[in-house]
Amino acid sequence: MRVDYxxxxxFIEANQNTLTLMDDRFMKLCLDGNxxxxxxxxxxxxxxxxxxxxxxxxxxxxxxxxxIAIDVYARxxxxxxxxxxxxxxxxxxxxxxxxxxxSLMDSHHLxxxxxxxxxxxxxxxxxxxxxxxxxxxxMYTINRYIxxxxxxxxDGLHIVYVNCSAEDDGSKVWKLIHDMICPxxxxxxxxELADRVGFFKTTKKGREQMSDWFSDYEKIVAQxxxxxxxxxxxESIALSLLNLGKMTLEExxxxxxxxxxxxxxxxxxxxx
Length: 272
Prior knowledge:
single chain; about 270 residues; alpha/beta; six-stranded mixed β-sheet; 9 helices; disordered N terminus
């Protein structure tokens, strides 16, 4: 499926007044390899004057069974690691997902012969459109404590939720919240972010890069559409075979090319 605009310039014009850093595609365009922007973001969250020395957007980490693409990966001069995730869907920012991100980061930052105490301090940061934890705070910081003693466990993992639905509470992180959902660079607080967003929205060179980005976006949309159609076709085959009632779930999974858990869910849906 093709994104239907007369030309790419019209696409840019149509989205000029609505694109924000909460759009993960635009965020990637703005932040990939941009140390000043990422450093400013982290300093507004952690509230320390740290120095970022490396950053990448969509950095992929693989495990034995599942891989993830980190929205924004960063490392500071003290060796601390940051995984920043932009989440518009609350279901994608659960506590167990944060746990998985932390464990996967650990597995890629410790060599086989390295002492466990050399594991870097890690921050998993979810910047969410809604208040996932629902306590009306602009930011939540989660660390492990020893039960009954109120002493930190000091395992080096920190999980942070930044709530972009929060009202202005005068905090430093709220300036970042404002800028994450603000489409107008002239109204942004953090200069590094304002300059970067403004580059793409207001300069000729930036708009040319936006045009290249749109070309990539078209390919992504087409790929997602092909994947959706294939999934529908496979589910249709599986449902037909389930209705016949002559094959095992394993046989249906093999014929439809669906995973067995998916076939099991379809079977349960039919019985409901």
